[in-house]
Amino acid sequence: MMSPAHYLFLSAMLFLIGCLGVVLRRNVMIVLMSIELILNAVNINLVLFSRIFGDIAGQAFALFVMVDAAAETAVGLAIILTLVRNRHTVFAGEMDLLKW
Amino acid sequence: MLDSLLFYCFAGVAVLGAVLTISRRNPMHAAFFLTTTLLATGGIFLELRAGVLFRTQIILYAGGVTALFVSVLLLVRSGDAVRQVRFGVKKQMATAVAVALGFELIVVLFLARRLPGGGLLVRGSAPVDQLPPNAVAMATSLFGDYLLPFEMTSVLLLVAMVGAVVMAKNRKRHERS
Fold first, then answer.
1. Burial class (CB in 10 A: 0-12, 13-18, 19+), B115
2. Which residue in A74, A23, A38 sits closest to B168, CA to CA?
3. pTM above the 0.90 mark?
4. CA-nearest residue of chain A to B39?
5. Chain A interface, mutation test: which of B6, B7, B16, B21, most A Cβ atoms within 10 Å?
6. Does A94 reach chain B within 8 Å, measured CB to CB?
């Protein structure tokens, strides 16, 4: 096993790239994908510390995070689908129904 | 030696795939690069001896979530999306914030390395051959300590599924027929 710092660094990189995707991209589909990246980075940390401490609870929590991510993706994509049907756009900047 | 080689291989693929995911114009390409990243993360899980999570990652993420993304992408006409500008207007500000955050992370991690134990107050992790079987340990944990949260996730998934179906239902076509 590599040193914990390696895994932490990888996790931080993935988290950062995911954050950049959420902030920078305008296509809501890709924003949703970036959120998946962020959740994956968190999972790496959970599994790493579960391995270091020899406690399986971290892996159980990683499993719960995965289930959450799946539920979130399903609901998010349904919202996007409805938005595309009603507003004909996938861009976050054009979803301004409440603006006047 | 093999461990570090595998780690660098998987980590490189994961980071490269993540960068390509957020930088591709075509959402379909982004979805495939996202799959690459998720599979590489699964490899990292396997390297950390989390076999159950490795399988779950492949079945749930690389199988389920990606299929969901691709099928919704096929329903959404992305011709306009490809032609449009990729990034929003607040690019400079967002980049500055991200660079600051990344710099902070790097500094903290490099400073932490100098502390005893890599900055982590832990004893050395257990050797690989002394770990209990991963599936047994996971099952004991999920159906013992975390039984209630585990059952609640099933309710959560059911609610999410019903919600997604209700929201994505095409009402106009329904009324017409």
1. exposed
2. A74
3. no
4. A40
5. B21
6. no
Instruction: Give the gap in angstroms from C-alpha A86 to the nearest C-alpha of chain B.
Output: 10
B1-84: CATH class: mainly alpha
Global ipTM? 0.91
Domain boundaries, chain B: 1-84, 86-133, 146-177
Per-residue pLDDT of chain B (177 residues; tens, 9 = 90+): 788 899 999 999 999 999 999 988 888 999 999 999 999 999 999 988 888 999 999 999 888 899 999 998 888 876 555 555 555 556 777 778 778 888 887 787 777 767 666 656 566 666 766 777 888 888 999 999 899 999 999 999 999 999 999 988 876 655 555
Determine the residue of chain B that is closest to A4 in CA distance. Answer: B118
How far is the alpha carbon of A100 from chain B, nearest alpha carbon, in Å? 20
Contact B48 A47 (CB under 8 A): yes
Backbone angles phi, psi at A27, to 5 degrees: -75, 120
Q: Does B130 touch chain A (CB under 8 A)?
A: no
Give the distance from residue A39's alpha carbon to the nearest chain B alpha carbon, in angstroms: 11
Q: Please state, in angstroms and rounded to a whole number, the distance separating the CA atoms of residues B145 and B40.
A: 30
In this structure, what token pair is assigned to residue B96?
């500055």
